[in-house]
Amino acid sequence: MKIDLSVVIPIYNEEAGLIKLFDRLYPALDALELNYEIVFVNDGSRDRSPAMLADQFRLRPDVTRVVLFNGNYGQHMAILAGFSETRGEIVVTLDADLQNPPEEVRNLIAKMREGYDYVGSIRRERQDSAWRTYASRAMNRLREKITRIQMTDQGNMLRAYGRNVIDLINQCSEVNTFVPALAYTFARHPTEIVVEHEERAAGESKYSLYSLIRLNFDLVTGFSLMPLQFFSLLGIGLSFFSAALFVLLLARRFVFGAEVEGVFTLFAITFFLMGVILFGIGLVGEYVGRIYEQVRGRPRYVVQAILQQERSPAPTSLDPVFKG
Q1: pTM assigned to the model
Q2: How far is Cα 94 from Cα 146, in angstroms, rounded to an integer?
């Protein structure tokens, strides 16, 4: 049977909100009157999420598939694992916390049918804290200038992808990546639409401040060499500045003699330059670290099991099929 739509949803400790998700998700997709499948990817949840996903699979085995990781590998690895299991011509990613309304999937599909192969989304009114909203906007602007990837709202995972984009993403083997940006580089006709954004159904964000910083480092270093080029130019500029400062201080010494006060100025300049150098070393370390993780050749994630109905023309048992 041809699958028109695949919906990929990463799950991490979403026990408190899964029932609400099921109650809204399945009716919204049933109303589309399409052949669809939902691929839940459990990213090493420590609560009852895996058991609840298994129960939901037994209730709707015809349209439900569950990928179970053996540990926590992160949201984007979960999405990539879901992509590798999809069969739909259109693939939609959706967060499990219901901040992305499932009813918006209809609008994404309608836009895809206009000839686009990648449809991003922009939250109309973000239901997040003020600092998080402003920090996200600042990172959006910085990322666009550095990577030339035009995504108005990079943090919103409600997006639709054409099969051509999904197939190209599935060929990639990057250990650290940012899925929406990767898709944008492969899409021939990308666009964006405005969608609603609701309050979180339950729980709290799984992204800490450190996780958000790491994610943005992955985004910047994974899609551009501009930071390295910037520091190369900065190093050249500081070299000329240091030479000019040396000449100036030497001239002052001959004209005015030794100046004790100038020592403190030199200390300030030295510490500033040390900070710049350490930051530059850290930036180079980010790129080297990415290379190190890539050349180790370790799997990006480990699938413990897959719950799915056996694909067979004849009626079969609804017992789950485990892969791993």
Answers
A1: 0.74
A2: 27
